[in-house]
Amino acid sequence: MNPDAQDRPQIRPLWPTLFLSHRLPGHERANPALVQLVTDLEKARPDLTTDYLEGNLFANRHPVLEWLEACIRRCVQDYAAATGIDYELDFHVQGWANINRFGDYHNLHNHPYSWLSGTYYVQVPEPKPMPGRKDLNPGAISFFDPRPQANMNAIKNDAQINPEHRLVPRPGDLLLWPAFVHHLVHPNHSDELRISISFNIVLRWQERYVP
Predict the structure, then answer these.
(1) Residues whose CB is less than 8 angstroms from the CB of residue 136 and which lie 6 or more positions away in sequence, other chains included
(2) What are the residues whose beta carbons fall under 8 Å from the beta carbon of 19, sequence distance 6 or more?
(3) 3-state helix, strand, coil in the chain (%, to 5)
(4) What residues make up the domain containing 114?
(5) What is the pLDDT of residues 96-155, one digit of tens each?
(6) Residue 168 forms part of a structural domain
(7) Number of H helices, E strands in the chain
(8) 121-135 pLDDT tens trace
(9) Is 196 in contact with 134 (CB distance < 8 Å)?
(10) How many folded domains does the chain comprise?
């Protein structure tokens, strides 16, 4: 006799780290305008990429940035729903542009004082391996398990065995993840610019957020 459903082992994922990826519809039309906008901004501010906390890119009410912010807000709503949040969130989107030339990269870091972080990819060169090297990952972004050494007890076919999640984004991809997750961007090995727009989702405090 089969046991009743209530007598069967109950298995649930604990402390999951949710990661959203979405290829934005309309990116083919939006990205050329974003390339022009970001490169023009860098001409006026050469430290555009490194001084990312100076101002907020989305304070610029350019139509293509309004489109991107609307897409980000929709993705945040989808992310929140996936976590079980069934009430309205009050947040602002703080963003900045990144221009990576040949050899440019971003060290391992996370984003304190934010709820979520994300990146939208405007222009991504085709990966070009360096001669004689197979251990490099040009143009990729890596995310790391926030639980230190969690993979030490993993066994064959255990999904936790790899503490790194690495991917090569495409133009039009939007990624969204918890701001506490450490990540890094591998060097650009192309003479073509690698352009992205990163952002933080910063909550405006409300009493309803208290668990």
Answers:
(1) 129, 130, 186, 187, 189
(2) 143, 165, 175, 176, 177
(3) 25, 25, 50
(4) 21-128+162-205
(5) 999 999 999 999 999 999 999 999 999 999 877 677 777 788 889 999 999 988 889 889
(6) yes
(7) 2, 9
(8) 999 998 776 777 777
(9) no
(10) 1
